Amino acid sequence: MIILPKRATIIEVGPRDGLQNEKSFIPTEIKKMFIEELKNAGIMEMELTSFVSPKWVPQMADAGEIVSNGLDVKIRNIVLAPNRKGVERILETECKAVAVFVGASNQFNQQNINKTTKESMTELIPIIQELKAKEYFVRACISTAFYCPYEGKIDPSETFKLCLEFVEAGVDELSVADTIGMAVPNEVYYLFSQLKASFPNTLITAHFHDTRKLALSNIFAALQAGIDRFDTSAGGLGGCPFAPGASGNVATEDVVYMLERMGISTGIDLNLLLKAIDIVRPHLSRKIESAYFRLNTLAE
Ligand code: HMG
Ligand code: MG
To answer: Which pLDDT belongs to residue 298?
Structure first.
């Protein structure tokens, strides 16, 4: 018998992953309105932005403004940083949840952060310990956990070892990502079952890009492995600029629709989610392609 959770947590990554790969800069005020409307829809954990080099990712150049003036303390406001410089900038804000990120694949990490995976870990481990001493919530995002656009298949034991290093450093959460949307459900079930069994005191989250339309199947596989936390992006926006061929994240509205139909509550109002998508939609370089959006709006 399949045992499924009664409720699941959606971590909305739209304002960060969703917008980082857009062609033209989305006005800061629009991003802020998008974040507000996502909160209205019931999102309780959200990646707001990232402190990264504006030369590398121009869409995130306004990170400081996004997290200025009064973060809503009722929700978990997550901000990403790949290095000490980024974390130091987060420490100057009201944000209390930091996400560090690293690639299980060395070549991807070099393309994304200009360091080997080992160099990134050497920098990040003491930073994580410092953040925990200051009582920050720390999330570790592990990219290319299954496949890499440069190295191909990643051995699950490599991803596991990286997760173990993060757990030993004291992270609160592992967000394990199929960056290029290539994993299939049996691979997802295998890795997440191992992580769940090995790290019972760490939150474990699945982050699927939907390049090959495998994300919902992978979410079902992850649910069966005991995972009840999913990174998703309103409108299915997103993609990493340094992962060629990767498309958007699985759409929040499609995941919420599926989970609710399965009797798994998410606390998210789908109508308000559509309102949030409508705020950014006129500024996007792409069409919204999620099934729920298509079937429930009059948009072309
Ligand atoms: P670098 O060129 O090696 O860095 O880039 P550097 O240390 O030589 O510094 C170069 C310049 O960047 C300097 O400024 C630094 O001050 C500045 P300059 O003197 O030229 O004016 N700099 C920074 N500025 C702002 N914030 C910082 C920062 N650090 C240095 N934190 C670096 C190295 C890491 C900065 C660069 O490679 C970078 O910014 N990479 C970020 C890439 C990125 O954001 N990728 C997308 C997010 S990850 C993702 O999407 C995957 C995920 O969704 C999971 C999944 O799906 O896989 C999480
Ligand atoms: Mg991503």
So the answer is: 67
